[in-house]
From TrEMBL:
Belongs to the sigma-70 factor family. ECF subfamily. Residues 182-279 form the DUF6596 domain. GO terms for biological process: DNA-templated transcription initiation. This is RNA polymerase sigma factor. Keywords: Sigma factor, Transcription, Transcription regulation. Residues 86-105 are annotated as: Disordered. InterPro entries: DUF6596, RNA_pol_sigma70_r2, RNA_pol_sigma70_r4_t2, RNA_pol_sigma_r2, RNA_pol_sigma_r3/r4-like, WH-like_DNA-bd_sf. Residues 116-163 form the RNA polymerase sigma factor 70 region 4 type domain. Residues 12-77 form the RNA polymerase sigma-70 region domain.
Amino acid sequence: MPDARASAAAVFREEHGRLLGALVRRFGDLDLAEEVAAEAVEAALVRWPVDGVPPKPGAWLMTTARRKAVDRLRRDQAYAAKLAVLQAESDRSDPPPPPGADGDLPDDRLQLFFTCAHPALAAEDRLALTLRCLAGLTTPEVARAFLVPTATMAKRIVRAKNRIRDHRIPFRVPSGDELRARLPGVLRVLYSLFTEGYAASSGPDIQRPDLAEEAIRLARILHRLLPDEREITGLLALLLLVHARHAARTGSDGEFVLLEDQDRTAWDAALIDEGRALVPVALTGGPPGPYGVQSAIAALHAEAPDVARTDWPQIVALYDILLTLTPTPVVALNRAAAVAMRDGPEAGLKLLDGLADEPRLQGYHPYAAARGDLLHRLGRDDEAAAAYREALASAGTEPERAHLRQRLEAL
């Protein structure tokens, strides 16, 4: 029984997105798809301990879910539902759809990527729906990821589904120019998910590896589905190269460890090799995209034996390109930090002070912390202490606050 339950959980986790995508394609109803997918897993928990785990568990779940959907629609007296039943039942006699890569389910996840990331949805709703539909997280798990009550997250997910229904957002993959226009939104959702995993916005830990790994898993899926899209390749490379450092970013007690102090032998060499192999692909065949450029920056960090021997001139040059592609204050902040490593703290501080009036950096603690570090390197410790206090007031996680308190104590 425990083995069968564990198998059902593992299969559902792996197959959830594909199962949901196939059901939505067939029935055109996200709520119905979610409900019958859950019922299929419940059936697996009953049958598999008795009959054993089937050779193709994903296909078993799909067949069971389809039958349950037809049964639900048959009980519905609405005319539209009856038509759906006729269509669904006629599908039973149709030839089976082409198998997926593992011979089980056709892969309809791509339409869910674009539906969950539709621009008609609010940004926070896109990310929540992606976690719910593609990562297979439960509503309480999504709520924990956002650090909000479960009831709040449930309302947010319902709101997103209602908007899909009310605006008649199609469950389909856009083509041509529409796909290229929508793809940045899809990638932004995955990058936002990874960012929250890599650098948590609040809470007791500085990292959420579970979220970072989910973002990588989804990016791998998207890369397999659209292998010729270079920015997907760039995003996957970036996530792999950055996540390779996660074990070294915290100490044994969960304390925050700066890049310059990290044990680079603890970096994941396999992830680095995989990410580095993708970088040239992301940068070849046309003008580079933002994720391709960021992946190149991450690769230079991964290749360096230590901070002092990092190729800072090349990193600054890449930030110059990135700033033209995404002229945001955060990119300007990161470029200033790289200039400080190339040309010295005074040059970096001058650039940071030029961003002082940028509204989006007000209350952004990495900006104040970076100023504190450069002021300290210049011997201006009173000003550095003030900058560290400002950063401490807005830092979101306890390890970051502890690190800033240590900086203040050292001064």
